[in-house]
Write a structure and sequence with these properties.
The structure is a single chain. The protein is built from eight helices and 15 strands. The chain has 383 residues and is an alpha+beta fold. It has two domains: 106 residues; 235 residues, Thrombin, subunit H (Beta Barrel), CATH 2.40.10.120. Strand 6 and strand 7 form a beta hairpin. Helix 2 packs across helix 3. GO terms for molecular function: serine-type endopeptidase activity. This is Trypsin-like peptidase domain-containing protein.
């Protein structure tokens, strides 16, 4: 994940013309397509402009001080040896040139103004930086006592050239692990998936991997930050569809005390956990989430939450740090509302083909998991 310093170094190299042509073109495409990156670049420009102005003021001030020092030195030379025969120094009349007189008047007239301007510039720099951090913090939900569950894995070491080619689609993505991973599951048979928004946040590219280790490229289609939902689409030409989904999506609200379970990828193998629906509201009473008594771990984010009948009732999101086995999941009704809204916006011919039947009802838990596991995936995030 690029730090603030990394972004500023990249933007500075771009402004100085130090990027090669592919890297420069790639950055320009990203700036045009990513509003968040464009905002970050605008902030860099503001800070850089302020710093340049401050630097120019300091340079002018140093030059004026140097001129004043030269004038003082010349006057000191003139005064040496100018004494009367008594040996006492006279009070000489100092003759200065017209140019020196103008410089003196300029310095005396603008010294206070320049000092104030320099102080204002320093304050502007720090105010801008603090304002940026305050604005970013204000855009994030309060997560005191709450932790999201994407899993950080081994960082990929890629050179700038290799990253540029991969993002341009000119080279196969590496088969190593990405920086973060979470869980996702099939939404439709034709290649749409669901995961948590925080899993893919900041991603440059995504890979979807099933239990058979087959991998596909994916791209975000829509994100609902408030409800921590993201819809992805597989864009790999070798993808032939998921087949008929065995579960259905519940549009109503689940009942308190229902037995629920999830499967996901907090590690390389698929992991099952079960529990009960503890509350019909989430962290700090958020009505868009359930609280569940399931011990979830980093990597479970984005995984499906199902009831005993195999209805998908939620999407695993996070857990409460100070309470054992207190996890949270976005309600499936909010996911269905999102899908309906996207279908309506795209037109009747572009609606999502949601599963209508439920093949899990009436099966034992192991049988349900065997049918379900081929539709749950690792979401690997590359930054």
């Amino acid at each position: 994940m690029m730090t603030e310093a990394d972004y500023y170094a990249l933007f500075d190299a771009y402004r100085q013309g130090e990027l090669d042509t592919p890297a420069r073109q790639n950055l320009e495409r990203r700036l045009a397509a990513d509003p968040a990156l464009a905002q970050r670049f605008a902030e860099f420009e503001d800070v850089s402009s302020t710093l340049r102005g401050y630097g120019q003021r300091l340079s002018t001030r140093r030059k004026l001080r140097a001129i004043q020092a030269e004038i003082d030195a010349e006057q000191a030379v003139k005064l040496e040896g100018e004494t009367l025969q008594t040996g006492h120094p006279t009070m000489p009349t100092v003759h200065i040139s017209r140019t020196e007189q103008k410089l003196r008047e300029f310095w005396r007239g603008h010294r206070a103004t320049m000092m104030v301007a320099a102080s204002v510039a320093v304050m502007a720099v720090f105010t801008t930086l603090l304002g940026i951090e305050w604005w970013r913090a204000s855009q994030k939900p309060s997560l005191y006592g709450y932790t999201v569950l994407r899993r950080e894995v081994e960082r990929i070491k890629r050179k700038q050239r290799a990253m540029t080619l991969a993002l341009q689609g000119q080279e196969e993505l590496p088969v190593k692990d990405g920086k973060f991973s979470g869980t996702g599951f099939a939404l439709t048979a034709d290649g749409y998936l669901v995961t948590s928004y925080h899993v893919i946040q900041g991603a440059d590219s995504l890979l979807i991997e099933g239990r058979d280790k087959q991998r596909f490229r994916a791209e975000p289609v829509f994100s609902d930050v408030a409800h921590d939902l993201a819809i992805l689409r597989i864009k790999d030409k070798d993808f032939n569809g998921f087949g008929r989904l065995p579960y259905s999506f519940k549009r109503g609200t689940a009942d308190l005390g229902e037995k629920v379970y999830t499967i996901g990828y907090p590690r390389e193998d698929l992991v099952f956990n079960d529990g009960s629906l503890s509350a019909r509201s989430g962290f700090e009473g958020d009505s868009a989430f359930y609280q569940i008594s399931i011990p979830v771990n980093p990597g479970n984010s984005g995984g499906p939450l199902l009831d005993d009948r195999g209805n998908l009732i939620g999407v695993i999101s996070g857990r409460q740090m100070d309470v054992q086995s207190a996890a949270f999941a976005t309600k499936s009704s909010y996911l269905m509302h999102l899908v309906d809204s996207l279908s309506a916006a795209a037109g009747s011919g572009q609606s999502y083909s949601m599963p209508r039947g439920n093949q899990l009802a009436g099966n034992s838990r192991p049988q349900q998991i065997r049918k379900l596991r081929d539709y749950v995936f690792v979401v690997k995030v590359y930054e």
